[in-house]
Amino acid sequence: MTQAAAPAPTAKTRYRRHSVSAALWRRPWARATLLLTPPLAWFVLIYLASLVILLVTAFWQINPFTTNVERVWSLSNFTTIFTSPAYLTIIGRTVGMAAAVTVVDAVVAFPFAYYMARVASPRTRTALFVAILLPLWASYLAKVYSWLVIFTHNGILDWSLSRAGLGQVHLIYSNWAVFTVFCYLWLPFMILPVYAALERVHQSQLEASQDLGARTWRTARLVLLPLALPGIAAGSIFTFSLTLGDYITPLLVGGTSANFIGNVIYTNVGIANNLPFAAAMALVPVIIMAIYLACARALGAFEAV
Amino acid sequence: MESRPLRVALRVWVALVLAFLFIPILLIVAYAFNRSNIESWPMSGLSVHWFAVAWHDPQVRAAFWLSVRVGIFATVLALLLGTAVAYALYQFRFFGREAISFLLVLPIALPGIITGIALNSFFSFTGVQFGTLTIVAGHATFCIVVVFNNLIARLRRTPGSLAEASMDLGARGWQTLRYVTLPLSATALVSGALLAFALSFDEVIVTVFTAGAQNTLPLWIFGAIRLGQQLPEVNAVVTIVILLTVVPVVLAARIAGAGTVTRSARNV
Q: Among A101, A119, A139, which would you mutate to test the B interface (most chain B Cβ atoms within 10 Å of its Cβ)?
């Protein structure tokens, strides 16, 4: 009898458990709500709230005497940014740097990606793929630091140059150093989407072009390049955005003139302790990226990634 | 289509780019075994002295363990939240679905400094003390998308008929999840977790703004390089960080295929 009594509660709880699962199964909206509430709460309550506060803070000021944040609305931070030649130069320098890095990385990446996608054997392709992934993921600081070591006085660059009898160049603590390191850091981000775009090009499209009498260069320029453009645009989103927001590379390998948008933000959060001004400055790359993304979308970048 | 000279030129180009990508990393690893404390080239001799120094440095140890803790917490949070949102977006079509996937990508689409200063303003505004929790919150925010991307890509490739078959055979929702859906996406989850950890362990741009007085390992490295102090020790520490970011990525690529590792292109 005790044996018969035992299963009863188990069956009951099991039934209840089934009814929960069944109820959820019958009500998809309940399941969706259950699944979505925690991640959405996280994103809305922390991330979106942060962005909103950033936006609001940009319109506040700091009291110059007490350095306390005063919650009074005004456009003064933006007036400072857009009327001061110093800040306009910094914005110009940052955008120019981002553009230069993007162009150089695209030019360097294109032949590499072409080789990977259309010339290499499948085995070589996989090997090259891994060879791009490793530097992509290897520690960011390690990569920046390694260039500091390369550029350093009596470092490997000086040594190689003097071996080649070329004298010395002093790249360290200059904008050229910053440029080199940016190109290095973001190159894998350009190669991968360009590769993905080139891989999708049909051989028949290139053959058709050649059947119609186009030579190699003409085919490359008129057929291959337009087909690769969405990939280049996708890669340029990374190179552009990452350059706009980086302050560590200029700080470590750049000189005193290596002042970029990111550095202004960084200094104003840390040393100057002017959070409202930093927030206003942080909106500049957001605006630039919004314009850039709109252009990239027009070029079809979002279908490529 | 390619003529012979063009092929040769392409090969040379590929070799040059590979040299450009790998020489700096190999160089820094080589310097970690440098005997001298001056970073001139050629190196004067080999030794593991600086690894020992780093190992016995209490600051490095504390920073290392903080990074490990933060990485684990951020990964667990990202796994829970990223998995939930991936299943929801995969299973249901609803208004605002696109907006949610856009929101998820935003922390890595916007420059890292924006996420950093936004979180900094948020924590200052709400009066939350900067510390381990704020670092974890920042890392989890951009790690979620890594888990999400990995999982949703896998789910899209998994035929829905498998789950339907399971339920036709009498399995209930939880059973189907437990015995069919989860095993099918397990490798995607593991590789997502590995990538999230690698991302968190190496992150510095956002962490600078959320750490307060705490030092993660990248923050310690950043400080040491800026001050130009303990550089031989930095070489050794940096080599360890390279290992700890590259090994999970290689594992993730092994487990779930090299393609998954790129989809979640990282934001440094």
A: A139
Q: Is B246 exposed, middle or buried (0-12, 13-18, 19+ CB in 10 A)?
A: buried
Indicate the helix (H) or strand (E) that contains A62.
strand A61-62
The domain spans of chain A are 2-57, 78-304
Residue of chain B nearest A305, judged by CA positions: B263
In angstroms, the separation between the Cα of residue A3 and the nearest Cα of chain B is: 28
**Rounded CA separation B133/B135 (Å):** 5
**Which chain B positions have a beta carbon within 8 Å of A180's beta carbon?**
none
Q: Does A15 touch chain B (CB under 8 A)?
A: no
**A78-304 fold:** MetI-like fold (1.10.3720)
Q: How far is B141 from chain A (nearest CA, A)?
A: 7
Q: To the nearest whole angstrom, how far is the Cα of B9 from the nearest Cα of chain A? A: 9
- The predicted pLDDT at position A191 comes to 94
* Interchain contact B43–A (C-beta under 8 A): no
Coil vs helix vs strand at A69? strand
Model pTM score: 0.87
Flag whether pLDDT at A168 surpasses 80: no
Residues of A in contact with B3 (CB under 8 A): 216
Chain A residues whose CB is inside 8 A of the B94 CB are: 32
Please check whether residue B234 touches A, CB under 8 A: yes
Q: Are the C-beta atoms of residues A109 and A216 closer than 8 Å to each other? A: no
Record: contact A159-B41, CB cut-off 8 A: yes
pLDDT in tens, A128-142: 988 898 898 888 999
Q: Which of A198, A184, A188 is nearest to A134 (CA)?
A: A188
The answer, yes or no, to whether ipTM is higher than 0.90 is no
CA A254 vs CA A161, A270, B85, B162, B225: distances in Å: 21, 19, 41, 56, 13
Domains of chain B: 49-263 (1.10.3720.10)
Residues 6+ apart with CB under 8 A from B86: B147, B148, B151, B152, B155
Closest CA to B185 of B203, B205, B165, B163: B163
